[in-house]
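Our consortium's second objective concerns turning raw sequence data into structural hypotheses that experimental partners can test. To show how far this objective has progressed, the report includes one record in full. It was chosen at random from the queue rather than selected for favorable results. The single chain below, 210 residues long, was entered without modification.
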Amino acid sequence: MSAQGAVLGFGLVALLLTITPGLDTALVLRAAITRGRRDAVATALGVVAGVLAWGAAAAVGVSALLTASTVAYDVLRLVGAGYLVWLGGRILWRLTRHPAGSNAGSSPSPGGAWRSARTGLLTNLLNPKVGAFYVSVLPQFLPPDTSALGMGVLLALVHAALSLVWFAVLVLGAVAARRWLQRPRVSRTVEGVTGVALLGLGLRLALPGG
């Protein structure tokens, strides 16, 4: 397989993964609807930074270590599960503190951009399944006559670029419809669904074999 073929092949796989609704998409949409474009962009950049980190880690074999070592994988899995449960629980707790007619939480929060970027980054880094994806898929697209690290980072950049385009579409769409989406009932529904999804994913990840 040539380098060009590897980029095109991996790009197709990464595109399908990117547009499939998941945790990253939910986080970016929630930020766009409840806190605005700046925080949504920050969340997206955090997610993309996590993608690049996992791509580089897979290229140098760190992800392979997580796959081979049950202890290392379980530690990361439990830490990631705890973070998701905390994140989802915090969202649901905030909902219970505000009356149904309140639109609290729909404006940038203190330290919003940095906090949003950190949330996107940590959610991605602490998800061992992202590492499992990279360690199982990435080696198939590494031509033998190329640098594993260099090619791994290049493929991760392709994934990151596709993610940025997808997130840009999501953010622009959410911002365009923000007046409707920011209605208290709609906004609280988005918050509630996101909180339950994070909590559920965290609990599922905490289970053996999760």
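The partners drew two points from this record. Residues 38 and 102 are 22 Å apart (CA to CA). The mean pLDDT is 76. Both points have been shared with the crystallography group to help prioritize constructs.
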